[in-house]
Structures are given as C-alpha cells and as structure tokens.
Design a protein that fits this description.
The complex is a heterodimer of chains A (about 240) and B (about 270). By secondary structure, chain A is mainly alpha-helical. Chain A has a domain at about 65-100 and about 140-235. Chain A is built from 9 helices and 2 strands. In chain A, helix 4 crosses helix 5. Chain B has a single domain (about 5-250), classed as 2-Layer Sandwich (Alpha-Beta Plaits), CATH 3.30.70.20. In chain B, about 20% of the residues lie in helices and about 15% in strands. Classes of the chains: A mainly alpha (about 240), B alpha+beta (about 270). The interface between A and B is medium-sized, with 26 and 40 residues.
C-alpha cells in the first residue's frame, strides 16, 4: 500500500469528503447508511434492552412461582398467648435430639377436640381434619433439599440461637402467608428469598446454603475441610 | 482441631466368614440401588464388597480368605486422598475433623476422575436412576439421600449415624459422643464381630488398641498382625486389616518375588 492510499484511508475514517480511492470505496457506502439509520438502531437496542430487563427481573420471577394457599388458616400470635413455653410448646425436640417440626394432628387435638371459638378456619379444621382423623397437609416454607442435614438441636440448644434468626417473626403473625412454589425446582420461595436479585436485609430473608455458610465461616465452625478450607461437606449434608 | 476425630475401622480377616451380612446391611442402611439383574459387577453398586482371596496353591495347600472392602477413607498426606485431589467439582472432600471422605451427590457431575484415581475401586457410578420395586420406596432410610443417575457414590462411614449420635448428645447437653453411639451398619451386622469401628485418635477406643497406628510413620500399624491395602502408595488409609496368615498380609500389597519379610513393609 502506498503512502497516498494510507492518507486517503485515514481521512475517510474521520469523515472528510476526499476523493474516493479503490481501497476506501466500501467506507463511503457504510457511511451513508449510518447517517440515516443510527438513531433508530440505537433506539431499537435501548428499547430491546429495557424490554428484556423487564422480562428478566419482573415478568419471569412472577411466572416462576406458583401461589398456593395453606389448607387451613393459622394464627401464630393467638396461639402464642395461650401456650406456656413459646415456640417449643408445639415445635419441640424429641428425646433423641430430633426435631418435631410442624405439629401433627395429635397435638392439636389436645385443645381442638371440639370447636372452641367463632373462627370459620377453626371450624373447618375441626370438621375436615380432626373429625375425620386426617393430617393437615401443611406446606412447609423452610423445606430443604433431600441431601441437607439440618440439626435444630445443635443450633438451638448448643449454640443458643433464637428461632427468629432463621425463621423471622413468624410467631407474631396473625395469618399464614401465601406459599410460593418455584415451578422448576419445587422449593418454596422462602429458600431463595423474596428479593429475586438475592439481596437480603435480615438474617431470616433467605435459607440458602450461602446463608448457612456465612454464619459457619464467621463463627469458625468445622472449618477444616481439605479442598475448600471451609466447612466439611458432611457437617450439613448427608 | 484439638478434638479432631479420625474414624477408622479394623477388620479381622481371621474372623470373617464371608457371609456377606455387612454388604446387605450396608445396602439397606444407605438406600443403595439395585437392578433386576445385579450380577454384572461392572454396573452394579455396593459400597461394601467382600472379595475372596486364595493363596494360589493347589490342594492340600489351598487356602482362602474373605476380605470386606468399604471405602478406605485415605488420609494421604494432609488429607489429600487420591479422589479428593482430582475432583474438579469439589463434590468430594476430606474433613480433618472426622477423617471422613465425603461425597455430595448434587455437586457431582459424573466425570468419574475419582473412580479412575481410587486404587481400591470403592467408587461406583450410577448408570441409571434408582428404580425400587413397588412399595419398597417406603422402606428407604429417610436419613440418607437417594442418588440420581450420573453421579458417583461410595461408602460414607454411615455419616447419618454420626449426625444422629451428635444430635442425641447435644440434646443431653454433651459435646462428645461415646464409642458405642456411633457405629456403622456393617460393624453392627457382622455376626462374627470381625469389624471394629471407632476413633483412631482415641486411645480408649478398641480400634486404636487393635490398629496401634504410629503417627510418626503415617499411621502404619505397630500390630504385627495388621496391614493396610496398598499401603506403599502412601494413601494412608483408615481401614486396618488383621490376619495371622502371612500370605494374606502379603496379598494386601503388590509385593515382588522374595521381597516380603516377616512383617508388612516399613
């Protein structure tokens, strides 16, 4: 390539209307396109970007979760006033250290053999479940995957943690919230958390492995594995 | 780390009759899948496997010996067991607190490097999703997660029993568990009492007294009856075998002709 041609090429790039040389012929035609279509093309991409952000952050998360109602309404606040031993009155430890979790019908029957109050939910509970001897198919917000081993006794008895730290102020709620189930994984939305971007403000906003390990790293619990130099896998997995 | 455990096993081959109760107990305890035809051992899965050895002599000198083989839970040097070192997914790891090589099934993507690296063939691959005969899924152990197609699995030293034992101890306000609170399914099933399980770091446990591991020689046993499988690879395994017969001890490693002295190598 001669020196002249190089000069022409540079000037064509900068937009000057120099005589067209064979090597810079294509630049001139593309330049004409840009003059007319740059604006609409940029607008098209901006609109497309905004549309895909809306789809990704608003529409998809709404489609991702199905909404389910609990079979029977339950008022934690009301029950908390009636019982003696706070949460542990109904959610108790068995002698072997396992945790009972959601109460079975047998516990509820101790008080709800007959309808006690005026609440239609209680009447529904007594008529449909107590009278027929059927267990209530509660939807469990904190259900973990099959391979997770979680020891309530290690956290509550040994580490003296409060229920609120992971479960939030559920004990003060007057009704059960809607159970949102991830249509793909089948897990409750409470595992990932309400915030789809994964930000959390309170320790009870999420129940992911990250949230467990965050505390385990901070408190230096079983941080003696060889590959990760963090917690051993079999501490929380099975 | 001051209370670090090192769970291990001593298997007395003089007592083993090869009945296979340990294999059955292991299958039941750990939800191990099986197929209608489980005879092809390249495709079937068993965490505990009983091998039959013989001394390669003809009658009347013929002798045989059964050798149960769970995962050897190699410590290697500083926890770098062969499978842990090669896993690209951190699906398997070595816990210095318990000395157990863990396997997390949903993390495993089935590359099977660990199977190639393991000198003991303890790792097995799920070629199919488990399919239980009708109604049998109700008999699965809820404390053990069921594996899916495409992942590797192996003996976990019945880790769920350790978790349960710790739960009970915490409930009673203890931080330590007793020797008999955590025993593997194969140990308890063995009718001959050939398998002993416990903490190799604890001098009060029977395994420590039988295995007599020498910390200065990477756990090499001081017991003249004891040997470990392929010990010269440096895998530093936690399964010690006992035998009073020299050819059995010799069979535990690939010795050259005339190399073997009165006792396992130093």
């Amino acid at each position: 390539m001669s020196t002249d041609e190089k000069v022409n090429e540079v000037s064509a790039d900068t937009g000057d209307q120099d005589p067209i040389t064979p090597s810079s012929g294509n630049d001139a035609t593309s330049q004409a396109d840009e003059d007319g279509a740059t604006g609409p093309i940029i607008l098209f991409f901006i609109v497309g970007l905004i549309a895909s952000l809306i789809v990704g952050w608003v529409i998809f998360p709404q489609l991702l979760y199905s909404q389910k109602r609990q079979p029977v309404g339950f008022n934690h606040a009301l029950h908390n006033e009636e019982v003696d031993n706070e949460c542990e009155s109904c959610h108790f430890f068995r002698e072997d250290g396992t945790y009972s979790g959601v109460p079975k019908l047998a516990q509820c029957i101790e008080c709800h053999e007959e309808v006690q109050g005026e609440d239609p939910e209680e009447a529904k509970f007594v008529n449909e479940y107590v009278a027929k001897g059927r267990e209530v198919p509660w939807l469990i917000y904190s259900r973990q995957p099959d391979n997770v081993f979680f020891s309530h006794v290690a956290h509550v008895k040994t580490a003296q943690m409060e229920c609120v730290t992971c479960h939030g102020n559920i004990g003060e709620s007057e009704s059960l919230k809607v159970y949102e189930e991830n249509r793909i994984s089948g897990y409750s939305r409470d595992i990932w958390g309400k915030n789809i971007a994964g930000f959390k403000r309170n320790s009870w906003d999420r129940m992911k492995m990250d949230d467990c390990s965050e505390c385990h790293v901070k408190e230096n619990i079983n941080q003696n594995s060889v590959q990760t130099l963090k917690g051993g896998c079999f501490v929380c997995h099975k | 780390m001051e209370n670090a455990k090192k769970f291990g096993m001593v298997i007395d081959l003089d007592k083993c009759t090869g009945c296979g109760a340990c294999m059955v107990a292991c299958m039941a305890e750990n939800n191990i899948p099986f197929r209608a035809d489980n005879t092809d051992k390249m495709l079937s899965i068993s965490w505990m496997h009983v091998y039959k050895l013989n001394n390669r002599k003809l009658f009347p000198d013929y002798e045989e010996c059964y050798l149960p083989r769970p995962c050897q839970h190699c410590e290697g040097h500083g926890g770098h067991s062969p499978c842990v070192s090669v896993c690209p997914a951190t699906a398997t790891d070595y816990d210095m607190d318990t000395g157990i090589v863990s396997q997390i099934y949903p993390r495993c993507f089935g590359c099977r490097y660990c199977m190639a690296a393991c000198p003991y063939h303890v790792r097995q691959f799920n070629w199919w999703d488990p399919l239980w005969p009708d109604g049998m899924e109700k008999m699965l152990n809820p404390s053990v997660s069921v594996r899916m197609r495409g992942v590797v699995e192996k003996c976990s030293f019945c880790i769920q029993r350790y978790q349960q034992a710790k739960d009970r101890a915490y409930m009673e306000g203890r931080r330590e568990i007793a020797e008999d609170e955590y025993q593997t399914a194969c140990t308890q099933a063995c009718p001959a009492g050939a398998i002993v399980f416990g903490d190799l770091n604890n001098p009060e446990h029977a395994v420590h007294q039988l295995a007599q591991p020498d910390p200065a020689r990477h756990g090499h046993s001081k017991n003249p009856r004891a040997f470990r499988l392929l010990e010269r690879l440096g895998t530093n395994t936690k399964i010690y075998y006992l035998s009073s017969r020299e050819w059995v001890r010799k069979a535990g490693d690939n010795y050259l002709e005339g190399e073997f002295k009165s006792k396992a190598h130093s």
